[in-house]
Amino acid sequence: MLTACGGPTVAPSAPASGPPAELASKALPLPGATGPVSLDYLAYEAGRSRVWVPVGTNGTVAVLDTASLAFARVEGFETAEREVRGKKRTMGPSSATDGGAFVYVGNRATSEVCPVDVATLKAGACVKLAVPIDGVAYVASTKEVWVTTPRDKSLQVLDASKPGVLAAKAVVKLDGEPEGYAVDEAHGLFFTNLEDKGGTLAIDVAKRAVVATWSAGCGSDGPRGLAFDAAHGYLVVACTDHVQVLDAGHGGAPLGKLDTGAGVDNLDFHAGKRLLYAAAGKAARLTVARLDDKGGLTVVATAKTSEGARNAVVDAAGKAYVADSAGARVLVVDAP
C-alpha cells in the first residue's frame, strides 16, 4: 500500500564509469508543415513500431515508421485559433496514447478524444468533453482512457472497452491542475502532478480516488511530466530543469536526482535498457540516464537538439524521437 511521504532515505546517483557519449541525430521534416507548429505529446506505438506526432497547426497526426523513417498521415482533425499568453496560436490534435488496436488522439481545438485504427489509420467517432483537455493516457487493465483536464482541475475517464468506441465514464476531481501522467498497471494506480500547487498524486484506478500525495521539490514552476519504472516501483518526476526519482512503493521517498538543463516537460523510460530520456527545450539538449536498482541516475549519453525541442519518446531499440516545434521537425537521436 502507498502511504503519505515520510522518513525518506536519499540514494545518491552512482558515479559515471566514463564520460557520457555524444549521440548523433537526424532531423525529419513533418509532412505538409512549416515551422513554427504546435507540437506537444508524442506517443510510441509498440505493436507496429511507429511514433505518432499530433500536429495541431494543420490538423493532422504524422505517423512515423521507425524502420523506414517514412511518414503516413491521419488527416481531418479540426483546428481553432486561440490566444495564449497574448499570442494567437492555431490548436488542433496535441496528444496521443497507444491502446493496442487503436491509438487515441486528443484534440485541444475541440476538446475531443478520437480513436484511430492502427491498421487502417482511419479515425472513428470522437467523444467531445465539456472541458478543455490536455494529455491522454490508456489504462490497459481497465480498458479506459484517462484525460487530464487542468482548467477543470479534474481527470476525465473514458470507457474504451468496445473496440473503436469511446464513452464518458467518470470524473475524478482534484485540488489542482493535473499535468503529466504515468500508469502502474500491476497495482492499479494512475499518477499525475499538480502543476499549479506542486505535488505528485497516486490515484487508485478502480476507486478513482487519490491515495497518496508526494512532493518532488520542483519549486514554484511546478512538476511536469512523469515516467514509471514498473520493475522497482520508481516514479520519475520532471521538474523544469531536473528530474527527481520517488519510491512509489515506499511512501514516495526521494531517491536519485539529476540536472538536465532548463525546459524539461515530458519524459520517457525504456524499461528493458533501464534508460530515462529527458529533452530540455531551453538547454537544447537530450539527456539519457541509467536508472539503477537503488533509484540513482547516471548520465550515459547526451545529444544536441534545438531550442524548444522537448517531449522525447523512445522506441524498442532505444532511439529517441524529439518534437521540434520551431523547425516543424522530429529529431531522431541514435540509441546509446
Low-pLDDT runs of 5+ residues are 1-16
Instruction: Using the alpha-carbon principal axes, give the shape.
Output: globular
Trace the largest sheet across and list its strands.
1-28-27-26-25
Per the CATH scheme, the topology name is Methylamine Dehydrogenase, Chain H
Beta-strand share of residues: over 45%
CATH superfamily: YVTN repeat-like/Quinoprotein amine dehydrogenase
- Number of individual domains: 1
| Radius of gyration using CA atoms only | 18 Å
Tell how many strands the DSSP assignment holds: 31
The description of the largest β-sheet is: 5 strands, mixed
Structure notes:
This protein is mainly β. The protein has one domain (21-333): 7 Propeller (Methylamine Dehydrogenase, Chain H). It is 0% helix and 50% strand. It has strands at residues 21-22, 25-29, 43-45, 50-55, 60-65, 71-74, 80-84, 87-91, 93-98, 102-107, 112-117, 127-128, 136-139, 144-149, 154-159, 167-173, 178-184, 189-194, 200-204, 209-214, 226-229, 234-238, 242-247, 253-259, 264-270, 275-280, 285-291, 297-304, 310-314, 320-324, 329-333. Strand 21 (226-229) and strand 22 (234-238) form a beta hairpin. It is globular, with a radius of gyration of 18 Å.
